[in-house]
Specification:
The protein is of the alpha+beta class and 422 residues long. The protein is built from 12 helices and 21 strands. Helix content is 34%, strand content 25%.
Length: 422
């Protein structure tokens, strides 16, 4: 798809009819999609779409709307700034585990000439290719058929119903070991969508070629509840990544039911959750580098707080200094704030986290827009816990190093945290 078919916007921005080739048909399709998802991804105004905190991509007919994150004060949305945030989004999605891009990946080779959808679809196709190479999983399945030979158990009632005049036929129930199971049906459905919606010939060709391996697999009944029923065992665990990708493709696809309508495929990610997951994963990846400190990074630890209510910080870090275990709390915030002080609500929340998790320091972690990190500030000593010294700070993480995504960000954050908690 050439650049004339791509509309680029940033999160929380607006797109009016008439801008960047966005016409009434595209607008009406997005209104329908928005209604289908109960206004989850964006708001609708008069002849305009108002984007929320979801980033990613929406393909509407022959138009691709690219929604990029943005955490800077640069109001100039030129090509250089767009490219900068395109790379940042791909990097965060990759490190967070939503897509796979590495030095040997075919998806990476296409990164410069492809949008997020192309990379996502190629990643899915690579996962299916891997499964096909290993051999598609087979499951036992009960079936009934009117056969000319004995196979399984004869069904007397149906034999009398169907074969009273055809004694040579036998209506039986039997068990077969087949590729026709829910796991493969879901993959087949996603492959059919990919073959139908992509504008890249290599993607369409690859999807159609892979579909040949699913000829004996029935069409999926398109029931979203099936995803919750999937159980991964020893044989099907290798399907995990492919099924996650397939689920997003299937659940975010809106076909054109009527003539003149445009089909939609959206790959949208909550930027707050993406940033939280990204920070956790890059910190988790540093554990081996800081093995001497016995660094341990965990996410979403819950503690009972009051009655049946729990509290759960984003990230809990434990490490040892002078053979003494210390704990830190991190809460991520994807938003632009000024230097200074956190809100009272955030300070109270961090105070509670420190007390409940026995943490010596809580960090409110924001993307940097040029602010300085001014270090921690101690909470006043409580009368009931006068021996518990703990603190809080605002930390601004610089995502870029000389306009390029900083691949050492995780190590830099841990270095900083260990240094201020000597």
């Amino acid at each position: 798809m050439n650049s004339s078919h791509v509309i680029t916007v940033f999160e929380h921005s607006r797109l009016n009819i008439g801008e960047q080739g966005f016409d009434t048909h595209h607008f009406e399709s997005l209104v329908k999609y928005n209604d289908l998802h109960k206004g989850k991804y964006f708001n609708i105004g008069y002849k305009k779409v108002i984007f929320k905190s979801y980033v990613g991509l929406i393909q509407v007919g022959n138009k691709t709307i690219e929604i990029l994150p943005k955490a800077d004060r640069n109001t100039n949305d030129d090509e250089r700034n767009v490219t900068k945030w395109q790379k940042a989004l791909l990097f965060m999605l990759s490190r967070a585990g939503y897509i796979k891009i590495n030095e040997t990946s075919n998806a990476l080779q296409h990164t410069q000439n492809a949008n997020l959808l192309d990379i996502y679809l190629r990643t899915f196709l690579q996962e299916v290719e891997r499964l096909v190479h290993k051999g598609l999983v087979k499951k036992y399945k009960k079936a009934q058929a009117n056969l000319s030979v004995v196979k399984g158990r004869l069904l007397i009632g149906k034999q009398l119903q169907h074969n009273l005049l055809h004694k040579e036929r036998l209506f039986t129930e039997y068990t077969s070991y087949t590729k026709d199971n829910l796991y493969n049906r879901i993959l087949k459905s996603a492959l059919e969508i990919v073959a139908d919606i992509s504008f890249k010939s290599d993607i369409v060709h690859a999807a159609k070629r892979l579909l040949l391996y699913f000829e004996d697999v029935e069409s999926w009944r398109q029931d979203a509840s099936d995803f919750g029923e999937l159980k991964l065992d020893r044989k099907t665990f290798v399907y995990k990544d492919a099924l996650v990708l397939a689920e997003m493709i299937i659940l975010n696809y809106c076909p054109a039911f009527k003539a003149g309508q445009q089909q939609i495929l959206a790959l949208l990610f909550n930027m707050n959750i993406l940033f939280e997951t990204f920070i956790y994963k890059i910190l988790k990846a540093t554990e081996e580098q800081f093995y001497q400190n016995e660094l341990c990074v965990t996410a979403q630890n819950s503690r009972q707080f009051w009655n049946n209510h729990t509290i759960r910080p984003d990230i809990l870090i434990t490490f040892k200094k002078r053979n003494i275990e210390q704990r830190l709390i991190i809460d991520t915030k994807w938003k632009i704030v000024n230097e200074g002080y956190p809100s009272i609500r955030d300070l109270q929340q961090m105070f509670t986290y420190n007390v409940q998790f026995n943490s010596i320091h809580a960090i409110l972690l924001y993307p940097s827009t040029g602010q300085s990190n001014n270090g921690k500030k101690d909470y006043n000593i409580s009368e009931s816990k006068n021996d518990f010294l703990h603190s809080c700070e605002m930390y601004f993480a610089e995502l870029f190093d000389c306009e390029q995504v900083d691949k050492n960000l995780g190590k830099k954050i841990i270095d900083y945290l260990l240094d201020i908690n000597k």
